[in-house]
Amino acid sequence: MNTIKYDIAFAPINKRLILISDKLGQLLKKNGISSTILKTSIIGYDHNGWGDLSIKDNIKTKVTSIKEINYKTHSNFLSYSYRVMKSRMSMKKSYEPNFKCLILFMDDYGEAEVFVPLMKEKNIPIILFQEGFFVKEKKYEFDLYSFGKYIRSRLLPKFFTAKNYSENSDYIFSWSDRGFKDFLKSINTNESKVKIVGYPFKIQDKKLNKNKPYDKVLILHSPLPSKKAEKFDNIKYIQIIEHLDKLKLNVSFKAHPRIGFKKIHNLINYKKSFGIGQNLTILEHSLSSENLYDNYDIIITTPSASSIEALYRGIPVIFVPNQYNDVLLLENLANKNKVILAKDLNDIPIIISNLNNNIVYRNEVIKSGYEAAKMIGGELDIFDDVFPKEIKKILKSS
User: Is 69 exposed, middle or buried (0-12, 13-18, 19+ CB in 10 A)?
Assistant: First the structure.
């Protein structure tokens, strides 16, 4: 029996990607291409994003629930591994996709570890859609989490891929010739797989660079998945807050919507009891970072997708590196003075002081930040035309 109802299916793994999938689905609809969003939960309801949606989000694209990937409770390394194997075996027996092509945002983690082998067996093409400029340079790090992943992929190769991020997909949609594309070149990706589609997100109006104090600071939290890295990163955020305490600023903190928000919230509140960060405002972790930008003058963050929009909009971004994961692109841009990378946290108050007291410096930071965003994100006005055309080509050839 033919179960195909849609041309395209999206497999998002958090709220941000659900909303992106909906926007892409509506763009495809305007171009005569049908789509659905796959509703799944392999890590648990507190991480899948669906529980964070509200009526205001107004998802218009049809949703298809995948009952075989529907786990309510939070998972750890072992339970996650079990769920991947259980879901895959269950779907292998009876699952029939209702779509012709699958779009993933990660092809080596989460739901992808269930879907990718099934799609390969059924000759359904897989597109990896770039959703951020940050890509891990190495598949494995020197920590217990990476060691577990490595052993798992060797003991259970049928269930867990040993391939790099991007190597499990048939096509890759990249924003530009820089950043993610550089990573793809470094692992010798076949050029024919890569399609340059431009920056997919609509940029709000640029903030006017008025000669006013830059005293509203937003700290964005984005930890790495390993517990060791997360612990060091959380200490770093406390140190940033301590540095900002020395300045008379309005500082807000927004935790990552899925990873580690409870730990960092608890740590900040604990430090507040000792007088650290007394005037810090903790924002709701599920809020969209981009929707907050109108209210802030400066962003402090580790490498994250949302920082690109801030750069496009003329908001100074102070990047701080992750403890165990340098980003080559960011290093290169910092060496060319295109972005601010504060490897020494003691420099953050000095940078903020310069942004407030040296208008020439401020203007240069804003100008170079926009240039960096364009290198990372690509052209702003081609996506609506290029994306549907590339999708039609793939559907026609499959």
Answer: buried
Q: Give the largest CA-CA distance in the chain.
A: 70
pLDDT, tens digit, 9 for 90 and up, residues 341-395: 999 999 999 999 999 999 999 999 999 999 888 888 888 889 999 999 999 999 9
Residue type (1 letter), 176? S
Q: Read off the pLDDT of residues 101-114 as tens digits, 9 standing for 90 and up.
A: 999 998 888 899 99
Token couple for 101: 């092509």
Q: pLDDT of 106-140, one tens digit each?
A: 888 889 999 999 999 999 999 999 987 655 555 55
Closest CA relative to residue 64, chosen from 48, 40, 45: 40
Q: Which residues have a Cβ under 8 Å from the Cβ of 380 and sit 6 or more positions away?
A: 198, 199, 203, 312
Residues of the chain above pLDDT 70, percent: 91
Q: What is the pLDDT of the chain when averaged over all its residues? A: 87
Point out which residues pair with 250 in neighbouring strands.
Answer: 216
Do 315 and 293 touch, CB atoms closer than 8 A?
Answer: yes
Domain spans in the chain, listed from the N-terminal domain onward: 6-199+379-397, 216-377
Among candidate residues 285, 232, 228, the one with its CA nearest the CA of residue 256 = 285
Angle separating helix axes 383-397 and 15-30, nearest 10 degrees? 80
Q: What pLDDT score was predicted for residue 326?
A: 63
In contact, 255 and 264? CB cutoff 8 Å = yes
- CATH number assigned to the domain with residue range 216-377, chosen from the 4 options 3.30.1490.20, 3.90.550.10, 3.30.365.10, 3.40.50.2000: 3.40.50.2000
**Is the pLDDT higher at 46 or at 30?**
30
How many C-beta atoms surround the C-beta of residue 26 within 10 A? 13
Distances (CA, A) of 342 to 300, 330, 335: 10, 11, 12
Domain over 6-199+379-397 is classified CATH 3.40.50.460: no
CA atoms in the 13 A half-sphere facing the CB of 125: 19
Query: pTM (2 decimals)?
Result: 0.83
Between residues 129 and 256, the one the model is more confident about: 129
104 pairs with which residues across the strands?
Answer: 11, 128
Helix (H) or strand (E) holding 186: helix 180-186
Q: Do domains 6-199+379-397 and 216-377 have the same CATH topology?
A: yes
